[in-house]
Design brief:
Blueprint (H helix, E strand, L loop, with lengths): L6 H11 L20 H12 L6 H13 L3 H13 L3 H13 L7 H13 L3 H13 L7 H13 L3 H13 L7 H12 L4 H13 L7 H13 L3 H11 L2 E4 L6 E5 L5
């Protein structure tokens, strides 16, 4: 007699390890980019996957839990089971593992094929990853116009990472027209979703007066938010803006400190 998946195990696995863009996740599950409690996620997802009737998303989530636990082989096996069952999120996850080859045999061709399949199925992570592959020429010829295309598709799905990446391409004129105003608008959309790197870009734009007037106060506010979210460049820029005057020891000319403003 086959085991039946326990609803409590499935619910716990979903809550702890579901990806926020996985179309298979239940409507009432928000999902998480980072798995906060890896041991608990592994325990719940292993229990849920032990049943013969486990939904395919459980295998995707188990793959994520293994990946966060740095168990690449186990992650690849779980992703493959979900991918074979039609999970686009698992296809994208397995594709990345195969391209990187950390802990498993690298297979760039298969990895790219899986990512392309995920992207064409509407998977947001697949679209972003395919954009990156086109941009870097991994597994094929570099094509920045195609990279823009796939980032734009992911932007339509409200991906903050895609907004940021497309913003970078737009500000630099890669694969299309160079447009600081359009780039800034993309960074603003990503920043509204708390994308740290986009917030750092907005700080740089405000500091330099790019696509608008120079505004040191706004730059500091953007850099503060970005630094709080872990962007190191924003932290350095914040120190530079808030502490503009370097004091040097008159005896040897070495740095002795800074004069800071804004409470610094």
């Amino acid at each position: 007699m086959s085991a039946i998946a326990a609803p409590a195990d499935i619910a716990a696995c979903d809550r702890l390890a579901a990806h926020p863009t996985d179309p298979d996740r239940p409507a009432d599950v928000k999902g998480t980019l980072d798995i906060a409690d890896v041991p608990a996620a592994l325990k719940a997802c292993k229990a849920a996957a032990a049943a013969s009737d486990a939904p395919r998303r459980v295998w995707t989530e188990l793959g994520r839990a293994h990946e966060f636990n740095r168990q690449t082989t186990e992650a690849a096996n779980a992703y493959r089971k979900a991918a074979d069952a039609g999970s686009s999120t698992a296809m994208a996850g397995l594709g990345v593992l195969l391209i990187n080859g950390n802990g498993i045999r690298k297979n760039i061709a298969e990895g790219r094929t899986l990512i392309e399949k995920a992207a064409n199925a509407g998977d947001v992570e697949g679209m972003i990853n395919l954009g990156s592959l086109y941009g870097a020429g991994v597994g094929g010829t570099a094509d920045v116009a195609m990279a823009r295309k796939w980032y734009a598709k992911a932007v339509e799905a409200n991906s903050s990472e895609a907004m940021y990446q497309l913003g970078l391409m737009t500000q630099d004129g890669d694969g299309g027209p160079k447009d600081d105003v359009a780039a800034k608008a993309l960074f603003e959309k990503a920043a509204a979703l708390d994308h740290a790197d986009a917030l750092e870009r907005l700080g740089a734009y405000a500091e330099a007066g790019r696509a608008g007037e120079k505004d040191a106060k706004a730059a500091i506010a953007y850099y503060k938010r970005a630094a709080a979210l872990g962007n190191e460049d924003a932290g350095k820029a914040l120190e530079r803006l808030r502490c503009p005057y370097v004091l040097k020891d008159l005896r040897d000319g070495k740095r002795a400190g800074r004069i800071c403003f804004d409470g610094g």
